[in-house]
Amino acid sequence: MELINFSYLVANEIVSTTVPNDGLLLFGNPDSTRDDGYKTWAIDFTSFKNVLVSDLYDSFLGINSTVTQQTAISTAVTINAASGRITTVSSTLAAGGNAAFTVNNSEVTTDSTILLTVEHPGAGIPVAILDSPPSNGSFDIRLYNVDTNAFNNTLTIHFLIIN
């Protein structure tokens, strides 16, 4: 598996390589204090990849930002992050039915673009859409059950706010 394509400069020429499976890449950098004129460097891209993915996923995408809805499928939730997961109450939304709830979120503005995905391990086929344009501090999600069976479990709604 290729981890990353990497380009660097050696003797004023661009060298490109693919980081090998072990994740260690050796390259040279001009250094006039050395006899050969280059200082050898090594980058461990395995650690770099783990840190990068972790930082992006946890910090930027807010994967650790979660909230669980209380009481009913129409109960509002508050989650102040640019992205995260909303777990609904266990719902028995009927076939062909729909329900809406508000997400209070300090990251949202009237100009925000909000992406939604939904996962559901039980019966029914959920569809999640924005119920109306976002407002400063909140957006509304409408859930539809487009199946002939009622829901019988919780739903997990993933969201990403782009400002």
Q: Can you offer a commentary on this structure?
A:
The chain is mainly β and 163 residues long. It has 2 domains: 5-60, no CATH class; 66-162, Immunoglobulin-like. 10% of the residues lie in helices and 43% in strands. The chain contains 1 helix and 12 strands. The chain has one helix spanning 45-60, and strands spanning 5-10, 13-18, 24-30, 38-44, 66-68, 77-78, 83-87, 98-104, 113-119, 126-130, 138-145, 156-162. Strand 10 and strand 11 form a beta hairpin. It is elongated. The model is unreliable at 1-9 and 45-60 (pLDDT under 50).
Summarize the structure.
This protein has 163 residues and is mainly beta. It contains 1 helix and 12 strands, in the order E-E-E-E-H-E-E-E-E-E-E-E-E.
**Helix segment tally:** 1
Query: What is the N-to-C succession of helices and strands?
Result: EEEEHEEEEEEEE
Beta-strand content? 35-45%
Distance between the amino and carboxyl termini: 34 Å
The largest pleated sheet is described as: 4 strands, mixed
Which residues sit in consecutive blocks of at least 5 with pLDDT less than 50? Answer: 1-9, 45-60
Instruction: Give the name of the CATH architecture of the largest domain.
Output: Sandwich
What is the CA-based Rg, rounded?
24 Å
Averaged pLDDT: 75
Helix content: under 10%
**Number of domains as seen in the coordinates:** 2
- Number of strand segments: 12
Overall SS class: mainly beta
